[in-house]
Design brief:
The protein folds into two domains: 2-143 and 261-349, FAD/NAD(P)-binding domain (3-Layer(bba) Sandwich), CATH 3.50.50; 147-258, 3-Layer(bba) Sandwich (FAD/NAD(P)-binding domain), CATH 3.50.50.60. 27% of the residues lie in helices and 28% in strands. The protein has seven helices and 21 strands. Helix 2 (39-50) packs parallel to helix 3 (82-94). The chain starts with a strand and ends in an 8-residue tail after the last helix.
């Protein structure tokens, strides 16, 4: 049975797990270090912990979805608060001996490894603590860089939203404004138009809309206001509308705006890993680490998952990517363990005084 996210286990197993957890707190060398303790990172930690790997999760406590009231499209946990989901996840990984520590990774570098497993890493935390690992999973997420409109940032994730799938149901049939600041803005307008028939497009630059987009707006009854938006208006913490450059106020219940999602990857410079631009319809929407289908980056022994790889990855997709990366890491370590065992067996088979070379 499940109680508060915990799985009931026999007392002897729980005692063993407690001993593992206590030993982990003293450890400075791990099989796996996971950088980032939100959904992607905790999912990677869960599957590697369950595979009996020693795992450290380093979490700076700055999840991208922190401003949101709830996580949506997450089957089985629909609407759960982001902080509550993290708490549940931390409890679950702790049951398998995973250590979670608060901190920010400031540097990562390659180490010599061993003869049979030449891959290894050193990670420095902002506290000065240095830990080492055989493999890394980067799940450090991204930061939303917002349009420079006064009052907008204060409402981000609440009255100001960006994703119709994440926030659309909650603002259905309301007065929705969409701030068109990129060539992809017309598409965003129509996504929110599917949720309400009271949608206004605030177009900061007329060149952002072609004739096809304008015709589609007219056909769907979308109002268009051209010119700058001076500020986002709120009363008692609740968004009430926007003020235009002319001073006119347009009442609204919600405003959609596009951000640029910049991945947190500065600490990877020492590994030669850098984010690549993520481009949609010819326009840069953010950056991300390039990974293969398992989540492995271009650096041997380093995997990545979640928004650090793409701005568009949702919570449930981040969990899947973290699980995939963790499974691949464990499989890679199994191969390294086999190589080490074969080498040890070969050494034992060589008579004393003879060289293996």
């Amino acid at each position: 049975m499940h109680h508060g996210g915990h799985v009931a286990r026999p007392a002897s197993i729980l005692a063993d797990l407690e001993q593992v957890a206590q030993a982990a707190t003293m450890r400075e060398n791990f099989d796996v270090i996971v950088i980032g303790g939100s959904v992607a990172g905790l999912s990677a930690a869960l599957i590697t912990g369950r595979s009996r790997r020693s795992v450290l999760v380093v979490d700076a406590g700055e999840p991208r979805n922190a401003p949101a009231a709830g996580v949506h499209n997450l089957l089985g946990r629909e609407g759960v608060a982001p902080a509550e989901l993290t708490r549940i996840g931390r409890d679950e990984v702790a049951a398998y001996g995973v250590e979670v520590t608060a901190g920010r990774v400031v540097a990562a570098s390659a180490t010599a490894g061993t003869d049979t497993d030449p891959v290894g890493f050193s990670v420095t935390l902002d506290s000065g603590r240095v830990v080492t690992a055989r493999r890394l999973v980067v799940a450090s997420g991204a930061v939303d860089v917002l349009p420079d409109v006064p009052g907008l940032a204060e409402q981000w994730g609440r009255g100001v939203v960006h994703c119709p799938f994440c926030h659309g149901w909650e603002i259905r049939d309301r007065r929705i404004g969409v701030l068109v600041t990129t060539p992809n803005g017309a598409h965003q307008v129509q996504m929110f138009r599917a949720l309400s028939d009271r949608v206004t497009a605030f177009v900061t630059d007329p060149d952002l809309l072609d004739d096809t987009a304008r015709s589609a707006f007219r056909a769907r009854g979308v109002a268009v206001v051209e010119g700058p938006v001076a500020r986002v208006l709120s009363t008692d913490g609740v968004l009430t509308g926007v003020e235009l450059g002319s001073g006119e106020v347009v009442p609204l219940d919600a405003l959609a705006a596009a951000s640029t999602a910049e991945p947190r990857v500065a600490f990877l410079e020492g590994l030669g890993l850098r984010a690549e631009d993520v481009v949609v319809n010819g326009f840069r929407v953010g950056g991300g680490l390039t990974v293969d289908v398992t989540g492995q980056t271009g650096v041997r022994g380093v995997w990545a998952a979640g928004n650090v790889t793409s701005p568009m990855v949702t919570v449930i997709a981040s969990a899947a990517a973290g699980t995939q990366a963790g499974a691949a890491v464990h499989g890679d370590l199994v191969q390294a363990d086999i190589a080490a065992a074969l080498a040890a067996a070969a050494d034992r088979s060589v008579p004393t005084g003879q060289s293996t070379r």
